[in-house]
Every structure is written in structure tokens, then in C-alpha cells.
Amino acid sequence: MNSTLSKSAHPLLSLSIANEGDIVGARQTARVMARQAGFSQQDQARIATAVSEIARNAFQYAGSGKAAFSVDLNAHPQILWVEISDQGPGIRDLDGVLGRDYESRTGMGIGLSGTRRLMDHFRIQSTSSGTSVTFGKALPLSARTLLPADAARLGAQLPQETPAAPLDELQRQNQEILYALETIRARELELEKRGEDLNQLSLELQETNRGVVALYAELDEKAAELKRANEMKSHFLRYVSHEFRTPVNSVLALTQLLLRRMDGELTPEQEKQVQYIRRAVQDLAEMVNDLLDLAKVEAGKQEVRVGRLELGHLFGAVRALMRPLATNEAVALVFDEPPAGVALLTDESKLSQILRNLISNALKFTEAGEVRVSARQIDDHFVCFTVADTGIGIAPPDLEKIFQEFAQVHNRLQKNVRGTGLGLPLSRKLATLLGGTLEAASTPGAGSVFSLTLPLAAHAAEDYVRPQGNTILIIDDEEASRYITRRLFQGSQYRVIEARGGPEGLERVRFEHPSLIVLDLMMPRQNGFNVLDELQSDESTRNIPVIIQTSKTLNAIDYERLGDRQAAILPKAGDGRREALVEIRRILGEPELFQQEPEFLAS
Q: Domains along the chain?
């Protein structure tokens, strides 16, 4: 740290440097002065060594010099100053001498660089008419604050100190050197111990890393096995379903011929038997069709054929199809008038299939009352269909069970109704394929409500990849930001996991395969741009939606680097948050998310 000698410095003593004895005297004076000022033994040695080195330079290269001691009483903390000047030829290459790479052939410059390291303040001026070196050290905080009277007394006492003999001074220097060597040795031993500890820790980390690598390899293998098993299951279902369809349709056609008396009359008993056969085969055909649709969805073979669909037209078509199923006169099938002028861009066939499944189930398990079908627009992006009944209801523990394949909830009406346990699982998968969600709420004995939420504009299959799983990954190096983002999804069906940086985030992406990634841009080691590059380079991760969350004001270069790789940009504060939150809703198919956020409460 460079500094100039303060004008408030109080002069203590001046010494001439004309021979070797004067150098020793200057060193002794510096030590005594440092001791009386309250410096520690180590700092006394540092100050004495610095004075000795600079005084020797003045004597050796200029023939003589002058040493002046002073103390700055107004500084905080107070500073002991030493200025050593000469009238020699000066230092030709001062910057080079003070540089880190300087190597001295004569010893010149070593004292200067050493003094600069030992002292708190250092300044040097050198011209062809002489050199002045000023350096100072701050008094320790434990030292007593010096007053002007103390400084005057200190300056008066110094000349009265009896200078030590050169031999005594040499002995003192040797003691200081021995002390310094002991200190260095103690530090070397400490460093050796730390090195051993680090080696031990390194070995432990290597063992841990090997274990983690082995675990990841095992997880990869298990994941690959599960994927193969799932693919084999889907392939088997598709194959079996296709093979079943032909004989099932043949049996249906043959029973139809028999019931039409195409080959002669049937006895009443024969007609009853054929009717039983036909109903059984119809149940089998329904199960085969559901299995085939389910296998197609799981294998990604189902195409989304997007078209414009008026809600009024949809309700009219579904009403006409479902009226014949409402055979129980105690149950009314009611279609509320949908909002006028509302249209969807979606797959009409799949939406109708979902509604038919929901209405059919409601009619099966409702003994009296009504089954009511309605639709309402939530906001500018979503519409919600509800099928509500006054049936026997579903117990809370079974609300998720009903969406599992082949799962059926036991109740007193179960033996009287037909079902394969595939309708609701297939409906939820179709809803997901259309970019929406299917949820159920129920009170046993009072009825159930099934809610289907869809975007007003679905995407075609080749343009839209619906995220799988129920995990959201937050990649952000700031703990507070991760906490705030995690709170956004509180109460949702999604499991929120976190990563404190790019490398950890990429590792978690590969093993968790999240539905959505919330990514910060400005992170140490690996920033968000680099994380995006890695995600895009991996076929298994490039289709995971990414929300960029940042407090950085993006410029044109930033947008160019991002390209179209992000689904939305979510500012940590300020404008633009609502649009990003709406996009997250669409991606996750969760139109009720963020209802308590200020952006939506104000609307």
C-alpha cells in the first residue's frame, strides 16, 4: 500500500548514516523505538530489519544517508514512520527493481521489495540527485494511544539509550533468525500435517466417488431395464390388442347375424344365449380398444389432430351419444349451456372420448339425482370441463387409486356395473396428451366431481412434447432465490428439487428427468447459457421445458445466445412475471397454479 508521509507526523529523531556502525545504530534505534511504542517482538524485528536494509542500501550505493523517525498521532491507528534518504545516483530502473520477476545480481532491490512486504505503508522516490524511501507500520490495537507529550518524551529518551556493541547486536540478530527458523519449522510441520489430512480426505473422497459412480451405473442399468420392460409391455399390449380385434369383431358380426335370423329362427332360449355372448364380447371389445389406446399413448404413437371446436357443438354431439346410456329414470343427465362464442383448438375425438368416459362412469355409480356436465373459461388460456354427480362417492384414499390401470374401488354397486378399470387411467393420459389435467374430488355418499382442464390452444403432437413425471428442478446458486421459487409451487402435485449450480443441476437432470427446469443465468463455474448448451446437446434432455429465471436485464446479445431454447423468461422482480407464470401453467397443465401470486390477485 503506497502512502505519503502525513503532515501531522510528529518528528522523533534523526540519525546520520556514514559508516557500518551507523547502520547498526539505526537498527538498534528502530528496535528500541518500536518496543517503546508498544509493538510485539516480531514487529520489532520486522521494523529493525527494514531500517537496517534500507540504511545499508543508502550507505552502499550513495556513500551516506539520513534516517528520520516520526509518529503520526492523528492516524487511526497511529503509524510509526521511517524516512531514509540519500544523495546518490538514484535507481535507474525503479519499476523493474520493484517488480515481482526482478532478480538481483548485486543484492540491490532485495531490501526494497522485502521492506515493502514487511511494512503497512511504503513509498519511494528516486532521481539522479538522490533516493528517498518512506515506510511505516501501524501501531497494534492493543498498544496505548500516544499523546503529543508521549511522543516528545519518546524522542528525548532515545538518545539516552546506551547503544549495544556490534557483537551484541549480531547476537540479537542471530536470536531473531533462530526464532524465525523455529516459527518457519512449526509452520512446516503444521503444513505437513494438513497435507496428510488432505491426502486422507482425498482418499476418502476417491472411495466415495467410486461408490457414487457405481451407484449411478446401477441406477442407469435399472432405469434401462425399466424402460425396456415398459416398452415390451406396450409392444405386447399393442400386439395382443390388434390380434384380439379380428376375432372379437368376427364374433360380434356372427351374433348379429344370428339375432337377425339370417339362417333361420332361434328358440327363445337360444336368443337369450346369443344375447349373453354378444354382451360379453362387447365388454371384451371395449377392453381391447382401451388397451390399444393406452398402449399407443404410452408409446407416443397417439397423434394429436388439432382442429377448431365450438363448445356448443361439442356438447351437442356428446349429449346425443350419451342420452341412450341414461336408462335410469331416477338419474337426470344435464348439460349446462356452455359459454357462448368459446372455441378450442384441440383434438375433438380425444376430448369427446374423455367426456364420454367420465359421464359413463358417473351414470354407473349414481342411483338417484343427476349427472351434470358443464364448462367454464378460466382465463385467456384455459377452459375447465366438470362432470358432477350425486352418486355414492369415492373415499379420499381411493381418489388416486382410480387413475391406476385395472384398479377398481370396491363398493356395493360394483357387481352390477361393467368396467375394465382402464377408462379413467386412459382419460388422464389423453388429457395430458392434450396439454391438460384430469382431477377428481369426492365426498362419500354425496357424489363426485371430475375436472378436466385444457388449454384453449393445444399443440400438435409433432410440435408439443408433454413433460413426463411430476418433478420440478430449480438450478440457482442463491439459496433465497431457490426458496422463493420453491414457494411458487407449494400445494401443487409437483415435487420440487434443487441444485446449487450448473454441474449439480445437469447431474440431477440426467437422473431425475424433471417435468420443468427453472434455470438461473448468472452462476459461478457454469452459467445458465452453458447449462442450456449441455441440455440441448443431449437427446434425452433437449425436450425438457426450461424457464429462465434471472435478475439480469437481458440485452440483445443475451437474447441471441438464448435463441428459442427457453419456454419463457421469469424475472426475479419487475414486469414480465405474469406472462411467464401463465406459460408455466400451460406447460404443466395446472391452470390453478399461482392463484395467490400478486400478478393474479390484482387481475
A: 9-164 (3.30.565.10), 200-301 (1.10.287.130), 307-455 (3.30.565.10), 471-601 (3.40.50.2300)
